[in-house]
Write a structure and sequence with these properties.
298 residues; 50% helix; 6 strands; Rossmann fold; alpha/beta; 10 helices
Length: 298
C-alpha cells in the first residue's frame, strides 16, 4: 500500500505518517533518500515531528518521479507527503485538484488534512534557516524586496485577506477532491481529536492497530499536541492580548514574547482587523512596549 498524506504547511502530516508506521509496529520504513531506515520511537522535537525522515517530494514532476520509484520497491507500506509549492495564494486550487486526480489514477491512498485556521504558518519549521524562511515569505507575498520594513508592512496588509481567499479556494477544492480521497480531516480535528482520527484512518484503510504500542503513542501524541497548542496560542491568545494592551496604551513589556518580524506583522494585522487601527513602523526595530506602540497608531 502506498499512502499520501496531503495538507498545507503546519498541518501535521509528518506526525500522521509516523503514527501510521508506529501503530502498525513497523520497525523500519522506506525513505527515498536513505532506503530502509529504522522508525524512531519518538520523533517529536521542540516544535514538530521533524525528527522523522519523511518522504517529501515537492512539485508535480518530483511527485511523479517519487511514485514511479516507489512502485519498484518491495516495501509493503510506502508513505509520503507530497507538496505543490510554498505559496499560500490563489491559483493553487487547480494544482491541488490535479494532484488529487493524479494520485487517484495511480491507485495511491489519499489522506488529506484540510486547513481551517485564519492564519498561515511561516516560522514553525525548524529545518528551515532564516534565509529559506525569508524566501518563502517573499514568494508568499509575490514581492522580492529584502527591506524588512516593507516586508513586515506588506505581510500586515495582506495576511488575513490572502488567508481568507486561500481558505475559500480550499473549500471549493475539497468539494471536488473529497470524492477522490480516502479520508479528510480538518486541521483542528486532527490536532484536538488525534486518536479518533488515527483509528478512523486505520479503519478506512483496513489496517490493524498494534494495541501494545498505543500507550507510548499517546505519550508522544500528547507532546506533539502541546507543541501545536503553543503555536496556536501564539496567534489566538498572545497576539490578541498584546493588541489590546497597545490599544489601551498600557505600560506593558513585549520583550519576553521575543516577536520575530512576521509575528510583529501579525500583531499589526490584528490591530487593523479587530480595531481598525494601523501601526506605522518606519524603522526595522519594533518598539517593545505597548505604551510606545500606542503612540504610533493611526
Amino acid at each position: 500500500m502506498t499512502v499520501a498524506f496531503v495538507g498545507a504547511q503546519g498541518s501535521g502530516q509528518t506526525f500522521m505518517e509516523w503514527s501510521f508506521h508506529f501503530l502498525q509496529d513497523h520497525q523500519t520504513y522506506w525513505n527515498r533518500e536513505f532506503g530502509e531506515i529504522p522508525l524512531q520511537n519518538d520523533p517529536t522535537n521542540q516544535v514538530n515531528a521533524h525528527g522523522h525522515q519523511k518522504n517529501h517530494p515537492c512539485g508535480m514532476e518530483a511527485i511523479k518521479d517519487f511514485i514511479k520509484q516507489a512502485k519498484k520497491e518491495k516495501s509493503n507500506d510506502i508513505t509520503f507527503y507530497p507538496w505543490i509549492s510554498d505559496n499560500d495564494q490563489s491559483g493553487m486550487e487547480e494544482e491541488y485538484r490535479h494532484l488529487a486526480s493524479y494520485l487517484s489514477s495511480q491507485k495511491i491512498k489519499q489522506i488529506w488534512i484540510k486547513p481551517t485556521r485564519p492564519y498561515p504558518y511561516f516560522f514553525e519549521r525548524t529545518d528551515l534557516d532564516a534565509s529559506n524562511v525569508l524566501s518563502r515569505i517573499k514568494r508568499w507575498l509575490g514581492d522580492q524586496t529584502n527591506d524588512i520594513i516593507k516586508i513586515r508592512e506588506n505581510i500586515s496588509l495582506r495576511l488575513y485577506g490572502n488567508r481568507r481567499r486561500w481558505l475559500a479556494s480550499v473549500d471549493s477544492l475539497h468539494l471536488d477532491v473529497d470524492k477522490l480521497t480516502d479520508l479528510t480531516f480538518t486541521d483542528t480535528r486532527w490536532h484536538y481529536d488525534t486518536e479518533w482520527c488515527v483509528r478512523e484512518l486505520f479503519r478506512r484503510l483496513d489496517l490493524k492497530i498494534h494495541e501494545p504500542n498505543v500507550e507510548h503513542w499517546r505519550m508522544v501524541a500528547s507532546k506533539w499536541q502541546k507543541n501545536l497548542e503553543n503555536l496556536a496560542q501564539r496567534y489566538e491568545r498572545d497576539i490578541p492580548m498584546m493588541a489590546q494592551m497597545i490599544i489601551e496604551g498600557h505600560d506593558f513589556d513585549l520583550t519576553p514574547f521575543q516577536l520575530n518580524y512576521v509575528e510583529e506583522a501579525v500583531l499589526m494585522s490584528h490591530l487593523m482587523r479587530k480595531f481598525g487601527r494601523r501601526l506605522m513602523i518606519t524603522t526595522e526595530n519594533f518598539p517593545k512596549n505597548a505604551k510606545n506602540l500606542h503612540k504610533l497608531l493611526k
